[in-house]
Amino acid sequence: MKAITYSSYGGPEVLTLSELEDPKVGPGEILVDVRAAGVNPVDWKVMSGGLDPLMTTTFPVIPGWDVAGVVAAVGLDVPEFSVGDAVMAYARKDWVQAGSFAEKMTVPVRAAARKPDSLSFAQAGALPLAGLTAHQSLHRLGLTAGQTVLVHGANGGVGSFAVQIAAAAGARVIGTASERNHERLRGLGAEPVEYGEGLVGRVREHAPEGVDLVVDYVGGVLEQTLAVLKDGGRHASIADGSVVGSGGEYLWVRPDAADLAALGELAEAGDLRIDVERAFPLAEAADAFRASMEGHARGKIVLTVG
């Protein structure tokens, strides 16, 4: 099979289009013919060596944790899926090596969900990591209807999903973003506010009594979070571990088939929009990484395969 690989840490220049043997399919796994693979900032951060203290890496590495495709084979004891099923997954494994930037990938059943018919493979490949991060952070805090939720970084990949998930749950959503993105946030279901100096006052204009939940997807906003949080309110961050010292949750997304299936149901119901900013062919993975690293995309970046 063709796959994008790297044999040492570095930038996009270390990526190579390689020819590898097809992966073996173990018990509790499915083999997926990859149709699309989401590109996430964590992918190039892993490639730079930024997660080396946390995860074992075996070179050469195929990057990518988001995948959508068609089941080509099933391993032992896999009654959940059959050959030909269209699936999607946040397919992070316990070590860094066999990712989704390839023509084929094995996926643990615990991570895989059926692709909604309403989603293209590109949309399904863009959803898992960012969508699960948003879903798990909000539900870890106890999201319920009637709450007021502040989303820091509401226009980003994770934040835009969080806005929609919270709105679909019946919450009122306030989202921070630059002014040029405010109209998009309104379309997703948020009341937009400009981030930066004066943020606390602007949030208080929308919610004088404070907010019930705060989710931080950018970092560096703990002081503002605490200033607008109600007594008894809860907050979480994926970007700032110091929130733990103020009673917050510091989160790392987990592969979870049931959570991913719930996101698929929201998409099928029309409550979750998945915007693909740009799709690159597999061979142009380095350019896809560069586009992600620029940080200006208003939607998800994906690789298309096959």
UniProtKB/TrEMBL annotation:
GO terms for molecular function: oxidoreductase activity. Gene3D superfamilies: Medium-chain alcohol dehydrogenases, catalytic domain, NAD(P)-binding Rossmann-like Domain. Coiled coil: none annotated. Residues 10-303 form the Enoyl reductase (ER) domain. This is NADP-dependent oxidoreductase. It comes from Brachybacterium paraconglomeratum.
